Amino acid sequence: MAVLDIRVLGDPILRERTEPLPVVTGVVQALISDMFETMRAAKGIGLAAPQIGRPERLTVIDVDGAEFVLINPEIVDRQGSDKAEEGCLSIPDVYADVERATRVVVRAIDREGKPFEVEATDLLARCMQHEIDHL
Ligand code: ZN
Question: Given this model, what pLDDT does residue 60 score?
Fold first, then answer.
């Protein structure tokens, strides 16, 4: 595993269009492990592929020990709305209030390549919306 460089605001990759991952290969699984390690080293709760310079629709999340790998994620349902402060590993030391749904249902593919759906609320829902925005 390796800690990767996190791209920061101003890096064009952060604004580029991402590409769906057609298949979860061993190379992708290794990338996922590196992304978890990078996120933890930076004390983040989520990290999206463009933040480490990759174009895939892929994000990793760890909110209070609830770990998720979201590949090709889609928000299929959302409810409620709440404003709270958010930070981003690509915009160091800047925090801003962002309005988000308080409950979302996300459909994605996991690290084994299996499709799944997850319902998330509160901080986990906020984190998933933030990371999916990166994609
Ligand atoms: Zn972010």
Answer: 98
Active-site residue (options: 37, 56, 74, 131): 131
The Cα angle at residue 73 between residues 96 and 22, in degrees rounded to 5: 135
Residue 1 confidence class, pLDDT cut points 50, 70, 90: confident
39 φ/ψ sector (left φ>0, alpha ψ -120 to 50, else beta): alpha
Tens digits of residue pLDDT in 7-42: 999 999 999 999 999 999 999 999 999 999 999 999
Instruction: Examine the residue annotation and report whether 99 is marked as an active-site residue of this protein.
Output: no
Residue 103 CA, ligand 1 centroid: distance in Å: 19
- Residue 56 β-bridge partners: 19
Pairing, β 66-79 against β 58-63: antiparallel
